[in-house]
Amino acid sequence: MYIMYADEADQDGSKEYLIFAAVFIPANNAINIHRGMEKIRANLKLDKSTEFKFSPGKLPKGISRQDHAEAKSEVLRVRTHSQ
C-alpha cells in the first residue's frame, strides 16, 4: 500500500493555472518520514500547529530565511529507512 501526499502551488484564486504535485510513499516508510520531520520541526522550535511550508513567503514567525532554507534542505534529505 502507498500513501499519497499532494499539494498545490500557492493558489490564492488569482491565477489562471494550477500546479499540483504528488509524492507516493510506501505506507511502511511513513513513520520514519514523520519522525524525520518531527526532528526538523523541533530544531526550528516549531510547535505542531505551526505550518511549515516550502514557500519563502510563508515563513513561520521567528524563523530566518537562512534557517528556513536549511530546514527545507534537511526535509529533502529525510530518509525512508530507520534513522
From TrEMBL:
Residues 64-77 have a biased composition (Basic and acidic residues). Residues 57-83 are annotated as: Disordered. This is DUF3800 domain-containing protein. It comes from Thalassovita aquimarina.
